[in-house]
Amino acid sequence: MTRTLSCDVAVIGGGTAGLAAERAARANGASTLLIDPYYRGTTCATVGCMPSKLLIAASHAAHAARSTGMFGITVSDIAIDGKAVMQRVREERDRFARLTRENIEEIPDGIRLSGRAKFTAPNRLELDDGRLIEARSIVIATGSAPFVPGAFAGLGKRLLTNESIFELQDLPRRLAVIGSGPIGLELAQAMARLGVDVTLFDRGERLGGIRCDKVHAAVKSMIEADLTLRLGVELTAGQADDRASLSWRGASSGQADFDHVLVATGRPPNLAGLNLSATGIALDRDGVPIHDRDSMQCGDSSIFLAGDVADDLPLLHEASHDGAIAGRNAVAFPVSTHADRFTAFSITFTSPPVARIGQSEDDAVVTGTADFSDQGRARVEGINQGVLTLYAAAPDGRLIGADLCTPASEHLAHMLAWAIQQGQTATQLLEMPFYHPTIEEGLKQALRTICAATPIDLPEDQDRGLPAGA
Known about the structure:
The chain has eleven helices and 20 strands. It has helices at about 15-25, 45, 50-65, 80-105, 180-195, 215-225, 315-330, 375-380, 410-420, 425-430, 445-450; strands at about 5-10, 30-35, 110-115, 115-120, 125, 130-140, 160, 175-180, 195-200, 230, 235-240, 245-250, 255-260, 260-265, 305, 345-350, 355-360, 365-370, 385-395, 400-405. The chain starts with a strand and ends in an 18-residue tail after the last helix.
């Protein structure tokens, strides 16, 4: 006899968004069921944020060891033990993943179900073991997975994605990276700084979705200093003996062999097998349920999305927020509340990091740019490179967005995101204290440019020059 389970809110997917949705629903008094095939841990802990940052941290150490000459310090016989590098990546990654699984195991008994779910009706699910679930509301939080174009599918064991690259037992000698989005940029530069001969390919001419031409030029120059960059090319791939062979044409042409090919061409939503046709909800042209990002509700249905599957902003803090919104609204259905979303905010952890915040130059009336090539503290540290551009609205110079690639830009970006979310103006930021000498002082140049173009001038009691030696 088929067993039917009932609950107020069923959540499909046990990653960051799904966990947040189940937690929010239960906290609001709902009975919940959480469904996942494996409960391996979140994408961030297992194949995303944490292992990639572990590899990047190793690359920082290698680069720092090679860069001491400017300070009059000689470090000789620098050697990179690729096996040890990858072992530490896996050991620390496994620790993060284990801690995540331990947190999942704290969810009360009877809530966690192992299996794959598909819809048989808008409020009814069937698991792959035959169990049925009837829920008043359902949250889809099935995440995303790497996309491998057909041209590379035949590379066999030479093919890598972000879900397999960290399993390498040693660093490769030659690596091709396909795709210059955040994953491609981060891993390509990290591998290059660890001594791998890296070539980064992209059919487009723009790196990482960078909007500002000045910031893009700075990033392109930075990346080209570490590896070979081939933009505007079409690729064909094949295997030659124990290597992958790539040929390209377009802005340049050539052929080369590589030990491995890392395909970083995006992570589309995991929607296969859900049988969304049984839900009656509308889908966009990519098959993603059409939803309201402020409520995560699909139309006026009792179905909600959360996390990467929504195909909005595939970032951990957004997935967590999605889950909280979706879980709360799933309980309140048919009433729906609209959340105030975070200012859009992303960081690519290259060196220096690339950050994108809020609106772009197309939406701005006033822009201000700061060049960090001669910024005081950056020059002291020997990291004086990069550009920052701020965007502001008229008439008061209220900050609405930024693009930057500067020293400590992951920290500057947080300051700017907070200021933008709070609706602050360039003048208000300049009324705050800036310690000397710090990287934060580099903001002043761009802020002053915005102030000069608005009716609200610089604070009268503030020094309008630069501190001596800055």
